[in-house]
Prior knowledge:
This protein is mainly beta.
Amino acid sequence: MPEIAAGAVVDPAAELADDVVIWANAVIGPGVRLAAGVLVESCAVLGKQPRLRRGSAAAREPKAASGVLSVGVGATVCAGAVVYAGASIGAGAIIGDQSQVRERSSVGEGSVVGRGSCVDFDAVVGERVSIQTGVYVTSGAVVEDDAFLGPGAQMTNDDTMGRHSRGQGLTAPVVRRAARVGGGAVLVPGVEIGEEAFVGAGAVVTRDVGPRERVLGVPARVVGRVSDAELLENWR
């Protein structure tokens, strides 16, 4: 039987494996599926329904309706984190204290979402990704396997800051496999950070960064290349 502490609220429609552990004051909503070995810490909320601004594009689209939230084997949802209905959390992933994972987004196996970070709706985070404290992964973004996002890194997806016509699509950044983005860096809408690239702390990336390019500054400029010795294969 699952181990459910006093004060936790678990909806009868939730599906819990036998060895799931839920700490006090956590809330597990309907449509939540927790696999074997999942730990949900105090005051976490799983299966939250989105609250959408009236007139927003998401509110007008049928896909805004949320679905099942699945949490994979051995994953941990830490204290105060909020994971929305319709999201997917991979095996062994850690969703840090007070972080947020929105509807229709996914966090891959073995990835970590740091304290107070947000993975917004429709974002895709691959496997073994390291998202540090206070990071914003904007809606629609793609972060591929083994990427690193330093503390306070921010993504944006709207060049007009809300002044676009109804139905106009947004363009989110893409961070390719094993790329590294330093603390406080900003990725503007639509930029791509190439495989094994390096973005220095505080950089503002306004155009694509090629594979293994090293960029620094505001706006970011290429200052060199990532050496063979720095490649991920040498650091596993």
